[in-house]
Automatic annotation (TrEMBL):
Residues 416-491 form the AMP-binding enzyme C-terminal domain. It comes from the Bacteria. The keyword Ligase applies. This is Long-chain-fatty-acid--CoA ligase. Keywords: Ligase. The keyword Ligase applies. Belongs to the ATP-dependent AMP-binding enzyme family. Residues 7-366 form the AMP-dependent synthetase/ligase domain. One of its GO terms (molecular function) is acid-thiol ligase activity.
C-alpha cells in the first residue's frame, strides 16, 4: 500500500464523492485522480522520475493536492515547505534536499522569483515566466491514462523540514509506512468515515495537517475543504456552509475565533471533532472555547514532526480537570514513556524526557546519520520535551530539554517562569533563557515585551514575581524588547537570544 493507491481506490470506490472543495471549485474523486494522472504524466515528460525530490511551495489549494499526489504517483519524494518561508530559507531547502523540481504558487511567487538552476525544473501556477513553466499548461498537456505506483510501505515518500529553532532546518524523511501509520491512527481515534468533511486551514506543509488530516481523510474517502488562509470569519463560515465534521487548528485559532462577536449566530452543530495541537490550552481557555463554540467535542493531540506526528491524546471527556496536560496514553500504535537520560522509565512525579515508540516515527534525518542516531534510544524517539506524570497518569509537559537552565546545580524550567511573567497585566510576551555565570554556571535572563514602558524593568518584574516563584527561579537579568524573534511558524527563536549573549558573561 502507498498513498497514491489510496486515491486510485477512492476513484473506483467513491467516484462521485466530493474530494476537494475550494471556493466555488468542487472536484470529485474520479476527477481528482484524472488530474493527478495528467500532472504526473506532464512531470514525467519533463524528466521527473522515481526517487526525485520535488519541493512544493504552496498554500492550501487544489494545486497543492494535485501536485502532492502526482509526485508520489511517479514514485518521487515530495518536499512540502512552509508558505511563510523567505526566499533564502526556501533556497536552502532546495539545495539540501537535492531537489529536481520546484513547484510554486503564484500567490507566493515574489518570494522565490529569483530561484534558478540548470538542472532544476521550475513550475508556477498561472502564466509561465522566463524559465518557469505554467502548472495549468502542463496539466492540460498531460495524459489521463493511469500511472501505476508500485512502491511498498517501506519505500521513502516525503521529507518535511523542521522549523529550525536551534539552527538550520533538518529534513525529516518518512516512508509510506510511517505516514500511513499516523494516518490510520487519526482515522480510528477521530472516527473518520467517507461521510466526514475535513476543513484544512492550517498549512498542509506541516506534518499534522498533511498526514493526520489530508492523508487520513483520503484513506477513508472523506471530503477535503481547502482554505489558503485562516481567519476567524472564514472558519465559522466554512464550518457552517460546508457542514464540516473535523477541524485541526492551533490553540490561537480557537481563541481568536471564540472572541468573534458573531460566533453564536453560526450553526456549528455538524462538527464532531474540534482538534487542537502544538500547545496546550488552560482550563479557563477550554471553558471559553467550549462555551463559545457550544461544544463538548474538543480534543488535544500531542506529537512532533519526527514522530509522524503520533504521540498522545487528551480526549474530549478528559478536559475537565486535566486541561493543559497531553493525556495519559499513547495514541493508536504508539507507546509513550517518561525516562531519565539513560532511557530508564521514571515513576509518577519525577521529571524526565518523553520518548515515543511506534511505526509513525521517521526513518531519519535526511543526509544526517549523526543527528538521527542522537534522536533515538533503543528504537525510542527522543522528543526533547520534559514532562511528568501525575498520580492519575496524566502527562504534563514542563519544558523543552534544550531550554532547561541549570543554575548552581538546580534545574529551572523557563516555561514556568515565562507563564508567571505574562500573568503581569502589562507584559504581553516573555522569553527566558540561561546565560553563562562564572560561579553558578548559568543565571536566568528574561526578555520582556510589554504594553507600557517600565521605569525599571528588573525591579517591576522581580517585585511581581516575588512570592509567586522560588527566589532562585526569579530572573536576575532583564531586557525589554519590542518583539521576540520568531521563525515562519511563529515559534520563538531562543537560539537567536542566546547568540546575542555569547559576547558577555553575567556578573
Amino acid at each position: 500500500m502507498n498513498i497514491s493507491n489510496l486515491l486510485e481506490r477512492n476513484a473506483r470506490k467513491y467516484p462521485y464523492q466530493e474530494a476537494i472543495i475550494s471556493g466555488e471549485q468542487r472536484v470529485n474523486y474520479f476527477e481528482l485522480d484524472q488530474q493527478v494522472n495528467k500532472f504526473a504524466s506532464a512531470l514525467k515528460q519533463q524528466g521527473i522520475s522515481a526517487g526525485d525530490k520535488v519541493v512544493l511551495f504552496m498554500p492550501n489549494t487544489p494545486e497543492f493536492v494535485i501536485a502532492y499526489f502526482a509526485v508520489l504517483r511517479l514514485g518521487g519524494i515530495i518536499v512540502p515547505v512552509n508558505a511563510k518561508l523567505t526566499g533564502k530559507e526556501v533556497h536552502y531547502i532546495l539545495e539540501h534536499s537535492d531537489a529536481r523540481a520546484f513547484i510554486a504558487h503564484e500567490l507566493l511567487f515574489d518570494a522565490v522569483s529569483g530561484v534558478q538552476g540548470e538542472d532544476l525544473l521550475l513550475i508556477k501556477t498561472g502564466k509561465g515566466r522566463d524559465s518557469w513553466k505554467s502548472f495549468e499548461q502542463l496539466l492540460a498537456n498531460g495524459e489521463s491514462e493511469s500511472i501505476a505506483c508500485t512502491l511498498s510501505e517501506d519505500d521513502e515518500a516525503t521529507i518535511l523540514y523542521t522549523s529550525g529553532t536551534t539552527g538550520k532546518p533538518k529534513g525529516v524523511l518518512f516512508t509510506y509506512r510511517n505516514i500511513l501509520s499516523a494516518a490510520i491512527m487519526m482515522c480510528v481515534e477521530m472516527e473518520m468515515k467517507p461521510e466526514s468533511r475535513i476543513l484544512h486551514m492550517m498549512p498542509l506543509s506541516h506534518s499534522a495537517p498533511l498526514h493526520l488530516f489530508l492523508v487520513a481523510g483520503t484513506y477513508v474517502g472523506a471530503s477535503h475543504v481547502l482554505s489558503p488562509t485562516f481567519t476567524p470569519e472564514a472558519l465559522l463560515r466554512l464550518v457552517e456552509g460546508e457542514k464540516v465534521t473535523h477541524f485541526f487548528g492551533a490553540p490561537v485559532a480557537y481563541l481568536f475565533t471564540a472572541k468573534m462577536p458573531t460566533i453564536e449566530s453560526y450553526d456549528l452543530s455538524f462538527m464532531k471533532f474540534w482538534v487542537y495541537g502544538g500547545a496546550p490550552l488552560s482550563q479557563p481557555e477550554v471553558a471559553l472555547i467550549k462555551e463559545k463554540f457550544n461544544t463538548d467535542r474538543l480534543c488535544c493531540v500531542y506529537g512532533l514532526t519526527e514522530a509522524g506526528p503520533t504521540g498522545t491524546l487528551l480526549l474530549a471527556n478528559e478536559h475537565s480537570g486535566h486541561a493543559g496536560s497531553i493525556g495519559k496514553r499513547g495514541a493508536l500504535g504508539t507507546e509513550i514513556m517518561i525516562a531519565d537520560d539513560e532511557g530508564k522509565e521514571l515513576p509518577p512525579g519525577e521529571v524526565g524526557e518523553i520518548l515515543l515508540y511506534g511505526e509513525g516515527n521517521m526513518k531519519g534525518y535526511y543526509k544526517d546519520s549523526e543527528k538521527t542516531n542522537e534522536a533515538y534510544h533503543n528504537g525510542w524517539l527522543r522528543t526533547g520535551d520534559l514532562a511528568r506524570r501525575d498520580e492519575e497518569g496524566y502527562i504534563w509537559i514542563v519544558d523543552r530539554k534544550k531550554d532547561l537552565i541549570i543554575s548552581g546545580g538546580v534545574n529551572i524550567y523557563p516555561k514556568e517562569v515565562e507563564e508567571a511573567l505574562i500573568a503581569h497585566p502589562a507584559i504581553s510576551e516573555a522569553a527566558v533563557i540561561g546565560v553563562p555565570h562564572p560561579e553558578w554556571g548559568e543565571t536566568v535572563k528574561a526578555y520582556i515585551v510589554s504594553n507600557e514602558k517600565f521605569e525599571d524593568v528588573k525591579e517591576t518584574c522581580q517585585t511581581f514575581l516575588s512570592g509567586k516563584l522560588a527566589f532562585y527561579k526569579i530572573p536576575k537579568l532583564y531586557e525589554a524588547v519590542t518583539e521576540l524573534p520568531r521563525n515562519a511558524t511563529g515559534k520563538i527563536l531562543k537560539q537567536v537570544l542566546r547568540d546575542g549573549n555569547k559576547s558577555g558573561v553575567a556578573k
